[in-house]
Amino acid sequence: MPVTTLVARADGRLIPAAGADRGDETTVSGAVLRAQQVRPGDLFAALPGARAHGADFADEAIAAGAAAVLTDPDGAARPRLAEPEVPLLVHDDPRGVLGDIAAWIYGEPSLDVAVLGITGTSGKTTTAYLVESGLRAAGRTTGLVGTVETRVAGERLASAFTTPEAPDLQALFALMVERGVTHVPMEVSSHALSLGRVNGTRFTVGAFTNLSQDHLDFHRDMEEYFAAKALLFDGRSTTEVVVIDTAWGQTLVTPQTITVALDAGTGAAWTASDLDSTPTGEQSFTLRGPGGLTIPTSLPLPGEFNVVNALLAAAILDVTGVEPEQIAAGLSSVQVPGRMERVDEGQRFTAVVDYAHKPAAVALALDALRAQTSGKVITVLGCGGDRDAGKRPLMGEAAARRSDVLIVTDDNPRSEDPAEIRAAVLAGAKGHGAPHGGEVAEIGDRREAIAHAVSLAAPGDTVFIAGKGHETGQDVGGVVHPFSDRDELAAALRAAVEGARL
Fold first, then answer.
1. 107: left (phi > 0), else alpha (psi -120 to 50), else beta?
2. Does one domain contain both 307 and 188?
3. Angle at 12 between CA 97 and CA 14, to 5 degrees
4. What angle do CA 142, 238, 310 make, to 5 degrees?
5. Full strand arrangement of the beta sheet holding 294-299
6. Which residues, other chains included, contact 279 with Cβ-Cβ below 8 Å and sequence gap of 6+?
7. What phi and psi values does residue 182 have, to the nearest 5 degrees?
8. Average per-residue pLDDT in the chain?
């Protein structure tokens, strides 16, 4: 696309390359945010950042073949762009327009693939996998964008963010269109909405799960956090589907909203009845939808909160034309990495890994496990560094109240002192009486903590490893060390089983 066209559509200002006239018809064929990722023909987005300005890396980008640079007035005034070798597209809010610009460059791909956006604090990942499973049961060619991974027509790509940066996202959608993808369930984070990463994306469906405390290191308060989530419902989504079990969801409801709730008394369009669960956590229930629709359903995930996730997924699938029997087939066969994921090495107790890393998620997960556990619940829990510190004692309290044994350990301390993070968790854990005994221990080494939890387990117990879920690294002091809760738990279980045989 010609840079002059982008300037006109974005309502920006063009500074021609030194020596060029204003009739310059330089074209760009891609867009990137990082100079080291530039390929010939790309537009380099030189944005202001917290620590540096992207314009300071313009030389590197231009040397790599950048055909033009998008920046703000401050960037355009910096020495490296004072006499630009390529055209400059100058805009007062370059981050805000970058999504639209990237979409234009890549041919507005979200108009050719159905993007099904899911936002909220908890349940985004599980709901996205439930939707994708239903779509595949219906024979659709699917993509997936989220925390665990990105998938394009069955090909798996690693995910750096829950929601990619705007240029990467639009390029990804364009790739999906080329690969014949028809539908893409997508997690949409509050960061992505606040920072404009999904600007330029047209959502066929926008869906809301719930809201609880998280990311208050980025948002000033819960109201600002909710306002970011609510941006998905500002008109960019053709159809809106909202869980109304809480006041946050109810705030989003309009006459056109498709509503979801576990409780039929709310008057929601989608509800559930006849709930039943097995000791191993599988559930059966009846989905009830608009027009008297009933869908007998099974779900291989424990907890009423996952029934709500399944309801939300069913409502999204129904909007996209998936038949009831295909919805049921998708829900019953779903596999969600690191989300209430069972690890079985032949032990005589339940062992579960989950991504729960906020107070409400810890409480919900433990309530679900408690309901199916005849013996003790043994929990391993830590909190991440350089993130919302206010939730640490709340997570400790939530876990201690619901566990017979709580082992507080490390979880991505990043640049912080791990002992100080553990102390904050322990303050919440030890400051409240616990109905289940609430023995609390501190073991900083996460591998040792998991092994100790397994050593305490007996038949009928549940070992719950919370916080990292699908992650495969432990960030300590800025260095990411290989670490998988699932692998470490499996190794500890194998050792315990082998030891019992001996």
1. left
2. yes
3. 130
4. 55
5. 271-277, 283-288, 294-299
6. 372, 374
7. -105, -30
8. 93
Fill in the amino acid letter for 111. Answer: L
CA distances from 424 to 157, 251, 378, 396, 482 (A): 36, 33, 20, 8, 25
Q: What is the pLDDT of residues 338-357, one digit of tens each?
A: 888 999 999 999 999 999 88
- Do 360 and 420 lie in one domain? The reply is yes
Is the pLDDT score of 23 beyond 80? no
Task: Tell me phi and psi for residue 25, to 5 degrees.
Answer: -110, 40
| Domain containing residue 62: CATH number | 3.40.1390.10
Residue 230 covered by a domain:
yes
Strand partners, 242: 208, 259
What's this model's pTM, rounded to 2 decimal places?
0.87
pLDDT at 41: 97
Q: How confident is the model at residue 435 (pLDDT cuts 50, 70, 90)?
A: low
DSSP 116-137: EEEESSSSHHHHHHHHHHHHHH
Instruction: Provide the 3-class DSSP secondary structure of residue 151.
Output: strand
Using a 10 angstrom Cβ sphere, with 0-12 exposed, 13-18 middle and 19 or more buried, the burial of residue 226 is: middle
Q: Can you tell me the distance from the alpha carbon of 95 to that of 99, in angstroms, rounded to the nearest whole number?
A: 8
> SS3 for 440?
strand
| Domain of residue 56, residue span | 3-94
Reported as a single tens digit per residue, the pLDDT across 72-109 is 999 999 998 988 899 999 999 999 999 999 999 999 99
Inform me whether the pLDDT recorded for 200 exceeds 70. yes
Cα dist from 398 to 58, 306, 379, 387, 406, whole Å:
48, 19, 11, 18, 10
376 and 262 housed in the same domain:
no
User: Residue 347, SS3?
Assistant: coil
243 found inside a domain? yes
Q: Which of 37-46, 278-287, 427-436 has the lowest mean pLDDT?
A: 427-436
Of the pLDDT bands very low, low, confident and very high (cuts 50, 70, 90), residue 222 is confident
For the segment 153-182, what is each residue's pLDDT rounded down to a tens digit? 999 987 767 788 999 999 999 999 999 999
Gap between the Cα atoms of 407 and 381, Å rounded? 6
